[in-house]
Amino acid sequence: MSLLPLFVLYAVLLSVALGRAGVRSATTATTPAASTPGAKPQRVLIIGATGDTGRQLVTQALDRGLAVTALVRDPSRLRLEHPQLTIVQGDVLDEAAIAAVMRGQDAVLCALGHKRFFYPTRILSDGTRNILRAMGTHDVPRLVCETALGLGDSAGRMGLYYTLFVIPVILPWYFWDKTRQERLIASSGVDWVIVRPAALTDDAARGRVRHGLHIGGLLLTARISRADVAGFMLDQLESDTYLRQAPGLSW
Ligand SMILES: NC(=O)c1ccc[n+]([C@@H]2O[C@H](COP(=O)([O-])OP(=O)(O)OC[C@H]3O[C@@H](n4cnc5c(N)ncnc54)[C@H](OP(=O)(O)O)[C@@H]3O)[C@@H](O)[C@H]2O)c1
Questions:
Q1: Minimal CB count within 10 Å: which of 176, 185, 218, 242?
Q2: Whole-model pTM above 0.85?
Q3: How far apart are alpha carbons 48 and 53 in whole angstroms?
Q4: Would you list the domain boundaries of the chain?
Q5: 39-242+245-249 classified as CATH 3.40.50.720
Q6: What is the pLDDT of residues 193-215, one digit of tens each?
């Protein structure tokens, strides 16, 4: 008997489970106040700053005149000097390291990720728990965190290739940890925006992106550049449009 139908059943059930376990914007959102501006932050902490989205966040935040603190495991991976940039060595899994850099920040941008796909990990959720705790201790009001389409009420919207192959074969543990990460954020007391991008590219920013609660599609893989994701995440520091929501993002 072919195992294909069983595999497809597993993939569909996983997608349903990610949908049910993840954050549902529709039920967690406060009423969106159309483009009501939030307080303008001056100092931001960037987690995942040596990553491909993280580097975009750092350079674009500096371009916008923000004072940036980057918590990085290996400072040699962020070859950037700027009078407004402070690079601090540390691990997001180290609660004391996070607490030490959180003091005095106005907001946190998180682009945490890793490549340990093939066994269960809690790096995203444990790291995010540390971030949220430190934000509570130091009264840092806002978190903008990058997760992914395919979670919560965007389940299945990464397109068929991701729903039937990439997520169930390569990323099941990783996506499961992302649902934990999203739930921690949604149940926290901070002002949060979860940004769920489509498949990421390293193309230049186009500046025009589609965003909202019905981004992506069941069939085709939608895409978005990390540069555009970073721009949208930075916009969320000052906008309450998606406060306590998890908009998707694609071109
Ligand atoms: N690839 C896609 O198509 C896609 C689509 C949608 C969403 N996403 C998600 O978007 C996010 C960003 O993706 P990306 O490709 O830009 O990320 P990336 O290049 O993999 O960067 C991940 C960052 O997290 C940091 N990190 C990992 N573990 C850490 C720890 N314990 N302490 C401190 N920092 C740690 C890494 O630091 P090191 O440099 O020290 O490793 C790196 O700076 C990820 O969560 C990813 O799953 C990806």
A1: 218
A2: yes
A3: 8
A4: 39-242+245-249
A5: yes
A6: 999 999 999 999 999 999 998 99
